[in-house]
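Session log. Operator J.P. requested a structure for one protein chain; no other inputs attached. Running the standard single-chain path with C-alpha cell output.
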Amino acid sequence: MEIILKVDVKGVGYKNDVVKVRDGYGRNYLIPQGVAIEATSSAKKQVAENLKQAAHKAARIKQDAEQLAEQLANITFEIKAKVSETGKIFGSVTTIQVADALKEKGFNIDRRKMSFVENEIKTLGNYHVEIDLHREVKQKVPFTVVPAN
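Structure written below.
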C-alpha cells in the first residue's frame, strides 16, 4: 500500500514522502495514529503543491541544519557512567544521556534523531553518535564515556 507520511518516521521515511508499506502496518498503525494518509491521486497532487510552495523554506531549513552540523563537528563531550572494577558500565549509555550532554553544551537536539554508530555502549571508551539533522544532513559526533566518581 502507498501512503504519504505526515511526520518523519524512523526506518520508513520523511515527512511528505510517498512510501510503500505493508497493508496492515499502514491501515492498522500509521493511518490511525495520524502519522500518514493514504496516497490517493488527489492527496499526491496536494502534497506536490505544498512541496512546491515550501521549497524556499526547505532550502533555508537545510542550510540551518548544515550550519548546525558544522558546529557539532567541532565539539567533543564526556558522558559519566557508573562502572564496575572491570571497567564495564552498569546498564548502558542511552541517547537520553547524549541529548542531556549536548544540551549542556548548548545544543537542543531531540534524542529520537540520534543513533549510535556502535550497537551498544557498555564499556568505557570513545564512541560516535549519528545525529539526523535533516533528510540530507547527518553528522557523526564523537564522545567519550568516562567513570563517574
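Operator note: The longest strand covers residues 137-147.
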